[in-house]
Recover the amino acids of this structure.
């Protein structure tokens, strides 16, 4: 059995979905698929390691802007009581609640909370600690809509909005590192952790050395995609 914690640091395996497959993309590019496997098979391998939490990203939902609640239910059924944090296509408070009603333990929201000035406060009020706000960072700015568009917001501007509006947890992805196995952007995570908010780090996390480094800069957890695949001994052939 794999260990899903290193010291106090939580390691969260990632399951990215595209259609009926678990996939890994390079730098979020839908045309650069590094790995593909049926959802049931891949989820079964993750569940066998008994992590404390599984990170689900519906890439199709993120790209098309529509929650696929049936996919959430499918993953919940496969998760064998392991809690899920879910993202992709959650563009309204109603769709966030639908994801929670489908069995997700918490939801990650990006595009919708940055859509207008009052949106972030509305989501915090409605969802409380079940809300995780995504900061998906490319070239120092936040990307949205499946990482296909930029908000024009800097990391510091986004952090200020989060602190003012009572956000408790952030999911921060260094897009340039995602799917590259080049290591996490420690400078980015140190900067974000200085806010005092709980930070889940994603993008480029390879192994326990990276996990320790992220713990040292203040992250509470790390999402592992390709790194977790290598722990499972899975092929990266698409």
């Amino acid at each position: 059995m794999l260990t899903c914690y290193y010291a106090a640091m939580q390691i969260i395996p990632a399951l990215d979905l595209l259609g009926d497959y678990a996939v890994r993309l390079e730098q979020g590019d839908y045309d650069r698929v590094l790995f593909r496997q049926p959802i049931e098979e891949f989820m079964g391998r993750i569940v066998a390691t008994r992590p404390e939490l599984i990170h689900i990203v519906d890439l199709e939902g993120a790209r098309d802007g529509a929650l696929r609640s049936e996919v959430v239910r499918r993953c919940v059924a496969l998760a064998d009581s392991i809690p899920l944090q879910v993202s992709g296509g959650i563009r309204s408070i109603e769709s966030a609640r639908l994801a929670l009603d489908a069995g997700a333990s918490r939801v990650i929201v990006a595009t919708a909370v940055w859509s207008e000035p009052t949106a972030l406060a509305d989501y915090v009020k409605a969802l409380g600690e079940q809300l995780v706000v995504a900061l998906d960072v490319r070239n120092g700015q936040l990307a949205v809509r499946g990482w296909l568009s930029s908000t024009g917001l800097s990391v510091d501007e986004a952090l200020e909005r989060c602190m003012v509006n009572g956000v408790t947890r952030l999911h921060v992805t260094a897009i340039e590192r995602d799917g590259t196995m080049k290591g996490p952007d420690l400078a980015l995570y140190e900067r974000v952790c200085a806010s005092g908010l709980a930070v889940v780090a994603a993008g480029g996390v390879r192994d326990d050395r990276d996990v320790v480094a992220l713990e040292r800069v203040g992250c509470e957890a790390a999402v592992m995609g390709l790194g977790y695949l290598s722990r499972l001994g899975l092929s990266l052939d698409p």
Summary: The chain has one domain: 5-232.
